[in-house]
Amino acid sequence: MIKFILFLFSFHFYVLASTLHLATSTNPSRLNPILATDSSSSEIAGFIFNGLLKYDKDSSTIIGDLADKFYYENNTSVIFELKRNVKWHDGKGFSAKDVLFTYETLVSPKISSPYSANFRFVKNVEVIDDYKIRVVYTKPYFKALETWMMGIIPEHILSKEENLMNAKFNTAPIGTGPYKLHQLEHSKNIILTANEEYFFGKPKIDRISFHVIADAMTRFLMLKSKSLDLGSIDPMQFERQLSENFFGNFNTYEEITHSYTYLGFNLRRDKFKNPLVRQALSLAINREELVKILFFKHAKVCTGPFLPATKAFNSEVKAPTQDIEKAKQLLKQAGYDESNPFEFEIVTSNSNSIRPYAAQILQHQLKKAGVIVNLRVMEWQAFLNMVVFPHKFDTVLLGWGLSSTPDPYLFWHTDSDKKGGFNLIGYNNPEMDKMIDKSQSMIDRKELSQLWKKMFKIIVDDNPYLFLYIPNSITAVDKTIKNIEPSLSGIWHNHIQWEKDEIR
Fold it and tell me: Under DSSP, is residue 401 helix (H, G, I), strand (E, B) or coil?
């Protein structure tokens, strides 16, 4: 009788348990938030960890996350009062010592993390008591608050870890977030389960299952068949491959992304050091054609390094108009012609379904100017480990996701041209370095905005990248998912309130 009751209870729980089925194109490399640099790792880690602060749903205001209160003591000192009801997934209590440990780990020479650059102006982190810390900066810093959106890691688990870069924790993380890691099967499934003791309340959906599916078409077909509850749709699929039946089953949400795609020149290589060459290649491409062919108007041309709707965007800078003859003239001035054509390779990844096609279009466009382009498309992890991070490329077709408060230091300062840094192409402009250094301590946002706009123009004029396009994000969500509230930041800001009517 007892066994039968237990069976009924287990069956009842299974029926009631809800699972959100998603797809990710690549295996996460490290689910440690201070080491998660690829999109898959960052996305999944975001469910597992919290920062002290976060943006509100419209990405306009900074609000508390692990911090209950926060305030400036003066221009260089910030106080954080921490929430007292937070527990790590293993049941241990969260405290100020975890914040101090995260900071000390990030700035340690034992690890290589691009996020450490955000903490370079921190003079010290002082634990006042178990739930109160003081962060003192060496000078006023415009990102003093945004810095602490970084995920906090547990001191009690990692304090004795000798090699964090290869620690078991990176694939078996313990966080404070709304979901816990339950299962990680590379190239198969990553399963998260709801944290019943989450300090904002237990998520209403019990499980999130990430299916690792490299092929974009397979992901699309799984979405159409309702094997996935939510997924991205590319513009061609949206315009030509969806039926009324699909829209009967799914709601779609479209918004401009906070990211852009670019072709980055390896400026360490002699062939790209000549500005005439870079200008010629920029003039040889037709950005509007890229947007038209690839996105069916569900995108816009990218004109520079900072995104529209941010205070760093310079609306006076326009994208170059294609001019094949001018491109040929500049190449000839640089020593290239029909008998000695300019030749280079574009390397990209198949993790993004659009970029291999973008590379083909660029190849075709550049051919009109007499440029020979070779293409190489790679699996994401191999692309990162063999090409991007060791800087073994002519050009890379990649993208950046940017926050509402851009930090040019990460991408455009010479200091970021290092192992683990985001200055992948080796951009080196002393004038830019000085402007970035000046900007870091500017508190007046109007003054800072004007300086950012000057940087915008200088970078565009230097042509370190060919800035290509800003895609729209089209997301389809099964209508069985309730309580979605679209906002300027997307749909995920209130995901712990989502509910699922139907159980698979």
Answer: strand
The b-or-e profile of 145-181 (16+ CB within 10 A means b, else e) is bbbbbbbbbbbbbbeeeeebeebebbbebbbbbbbbb
| Strand locations in 324-381 (E) | 343-349, 372-378
CB 189 within 8 A of CB 183: yes
B/e letters for 25-64, b = 16+ CB within 10 Å, e = fewer, are: bbbbbbbbbbbbbbbbbbebbbbbbbbbbbbebebeebeb
Residue 166 to residue 201: CA distance in whole angstroms: 33
* Domain 17-229+480-504 is found in CATH 3.40.390.30: no
Instruction: Give the number of other Cβ atoms within 10 Å of residue 136's Cβ.
Output: 15
- Assess contact for 345 and 389: CB atoms under 8 A: no
The pLDDT tens digits for 418-445 are: 887 899 999 999 999 999 999 988 888 8
Q: Each residue of 203-222: pLDDT tens digit? A: 999 999 999 998 889 999 99
Question: How far are the Cα atoms of 212, 227, 354, 357, 383 from residue 377, in angstroms, in the given order?
Answer: 19, 28, 12, 10, 8
- CATH, range 259-472: 3.10.105.10
Q: Minimal CA–CA distance to 265: which of 103, 128, 373, 382?
A: 373
The answer, yes or no, to whether residue 323 has pLDDT greater than 50, is yes
d(CA 474, CA 492) in angstroms, rounded, equals 14
Token duo for residue 18: 């809800």
Task: Please state the pTM of the whole predicted model.
Answer: 0.78
Residue 474 host element (H or E): strand 465-478
Q: What per-residue confidence (pLDDT) applies to 73?
A: 95
Q: What is the mean pLDDT of the chain?
A: 92
The Cα-based distances of 231 to 202, 223, 227, 276, 412 in angstroms read 24, 7, 10, 42, 33
Statement: residue 5 has pLDDT above 50: no
Angstrom distance (rounded) from CA 282 to CA 286: 9
Three-state secondary-structure class, residue 252: strand
User: What are the residue boundaries of the structural domains of the chain, listed by start?
Assistant: 17-229+480-504, 259-472
244 exposure class (CB count in 10 Å sphere: 0-12, 13-18, 19+): exposed
Give the 3-state secondary structure of residue 142: coil
Tell the residue number behind the tokens 């960890």, with chain if given.
Answer: 49
Run of H or E residues at 478: strand 465-478
CA distance 223 to 477: 9
Q: What whole-number percentage of the chain has pLDDT above 70?
A: 96
Strands 230-232 and 465-478 come out as: antiparallel
Number of C-beta neighbours around residue 215 at 10 A: 11
In which residue are the tokens 């508390």 written?
64
